[in-house]
Amino acid sequence: GEPVDEITAASEERPQRRVAIGTEAVLHRVDQADVVVFLDFDQELLAVRQRAAEQAMAMIAQAARLVGGRGRGGRIVVQTRQPEHEVILAAGRGDPSLVAVAERDRRRPLRLPPYGAQVSVSGEGGAALIDSFGTVAGVQVRGPLDGRWLLRAESQNLILDRLAEVERPAARVRIDVDPLRV
User: Fold this and answer.
1) CA 127 to CA 145: how far, in whole Å?
2) Residues 109-122: what's their mean pLDDT?
3) Which CATH number fits the domain 117-177, given the four candidates 3.40.50.300, 3.30.70.270, 3.40.630.10, 3.30.70.1400?
4) What's the average model confidence in pLDDT over 151-168?
5) 25, 30, 81, 85: least CB-packed within 10 angstroms?
6) Eight-state DSSP code of residue 146
């Protein structure tokens, strides 16, 4: 048997053994690998996140950097039930534009970035900031959900100009323009 290190987001140390298994955190704690295996990658491909495909492609790109490409003998293995998914096709062909085109076609009709603007507001002072924000023509305010509000508009300027005018609450507020996770 080969000893292994288990790596998760909570792990503080870099792996010391030849084999490391774990969550996405492994990709950020290892400098080089001969093989990277993604088990049940459908969890990433089909995640209920508006940037799921983009983030899945980024994980494969990170794995490619670790294995150093085919010239060095590196391998990436992806277990999926979605072999025709644009991320899998793009990775296999080495053509990330397949993901970009599919994402463009999904995002444009939904007015998701870059075809619309999103700003998330959270923190202890989030409710007070949203109350002060008020109603602005062309801006939708959604939430709260898990202590977070989502502001949507056709233009970031509509949201950011109004946020610049609003008095800041005493409590902390986090404003995230084009948030990674919505």
Assistant:
1) 11
2) 96
3) 3.30.70.1400
4) 95
5) 81
6) T
